[in-house]
Structures are given as structure tokens and as C-alpha cells.
Design goal:
The complex is a heterodimer of chains A (107) and B (114).
Chain A: E1 4-7, E2 10-13, E3 19-25, E4 33-38, E5 45-49, E6 53-54, E7 62-67, E8 70-75, E9 85-90, E10 97-98, E11 102-106
Parallel strand pairs in A: 2-11
Antiparallel strand pairs in A: 1-3, 3-8, 4-5, 4-9, 5-6, 7-8, 9-10, 9-11
Chain B: E1 3-7, E2 10-12, E3 18-25, E4 34-39, E5 45-51, E6 57-59, E7 67-72, E8 77-82, E9 91-97, E10 103-104, E11 108-112
Parallel strand pairs in B: 2-11
Antiparallel strand pairs in B: 1-3, 3-8, 4-5, 4-9, 5-6, 7-8, 9-10, 9-11
The chains are: A mainly beta (107), B mainly beta (114).
Amino acid sequence: AIQMTQSPSSLSASVGDRVTISCRASQGIRDDLGWYQQKPGKAPKLLISGASSLQSGVPSRFSGSGSGTDFTLTISSLQPEDFATYYCLQDYNNPWTFGQGTKVEIK
Amino acid sequence: EVQLVESGGGLIQPGGSLRLSCVASGLTVSSHYINWVRQAPGKGLEWISVIYSGGTTYYADSVKGRFTISRDNAKSTIYLQMNSLGAEDTAVYYCASLIYPDIWGQGTTVTVSS
């Protein structure tokens, strides 16, 4: 199975900060990667598919990039509602696999 | 409105079995793929199984041989039969159509404990 390694596992940031989360695949997955946001007690929400395609209704401060094995989720200016845990998911081949998550906390 | 609703969770003793159900509305399960994803308390998301429109199924190594995913098209329902349950299977279980489109149920909680 393809392993997805996210970094960092957690970070502290302030409102307005630029935040970058990385996800590395153990083998090439083209651009078959999604990014999810999860808040406590809620189901995850898809932010980005195809590594860089912003989902409808998702604020433009979120962006994704990368291809092959290295991917990045960027929040250009962190807002109070962005404090959450973020996961990458490879849908390149089965079994699909999530990264271990990155918790974004308030500094 | 497209909706997925899980049920069947509960408290089960180690070694026991449980069957989860996921009822779909506004989505034709026979022409779509549905996944099961779980999240242990305080832990991350774990993809565990999928059934494709043609009936092909896949499993994570952690559940292979113990869990079986199936589908009843007439009832618009996806099932997850879970056998030989252990404490490590304690989690919230979500059914989800991942990414294309992205739809999640509310989750059902499975607790494996004596």
C-alpha cells in the first residue's frame, strides 16, 4: 500500500499567518491527491481534489500544489475558522490511504 | 439532496461480530463507489474498504480477511460485516463517497470492549 506522510503533525499559528502543510507519497501518484479539513466531532470536508482543484465554496485562501510524490496545502492567510486538522488522501490506487493528519492550533 | 446515513454501531465484546449499514438517498449505489472510513478516538482517518459499481471490492490490510463490504441495490444500502473484532477496531465508522463526489455520513460508533 502507498504510504502518505504528512508534516508537520501539528503547528501553532496566528490569524493572518501563511501556513503550509506537506504530504509525501511513498511512490508516485500523479496528481491523484485530495486535501480534507476536519473539525472536532464533524465529518471531514473536501477542500481540494486532483492536487490543486479547489472545491466549490472553499475560500480562495486555500490552495494545493504538487505532483508525483510531493504535495503542499497552503492557507495564505489563516482565519479563525481554519483551526482544524487537515488530511491528505491518495486516490491513485487501492487501497486508498490518508496521511496521519496535521493539527493547526491557535498560537 | 444526496445523503448517506449509517447505522448498526454499538458496544460489542472482543471477538464478536457486527454489521454496519449505510443507506443512500439521492445517489444510485449500483452506479457509484462507496467507501468505509474509520477514526479511532483521538486518532486520524483510516480508509478501510470500498465497493465499486461493478462489485469490485478492496480492503485495508488492517481489516482484510475480517471485514466484508457488500451492497443491496434494491435497498440502496451498503453493508460492512465486521468479524473477529478487537479493541483496535473501536472507532467512528463513516461511509463516504470520496472526492467524486465527496459525501459523508454522520458516522456510527463501534466500541469493542468487555
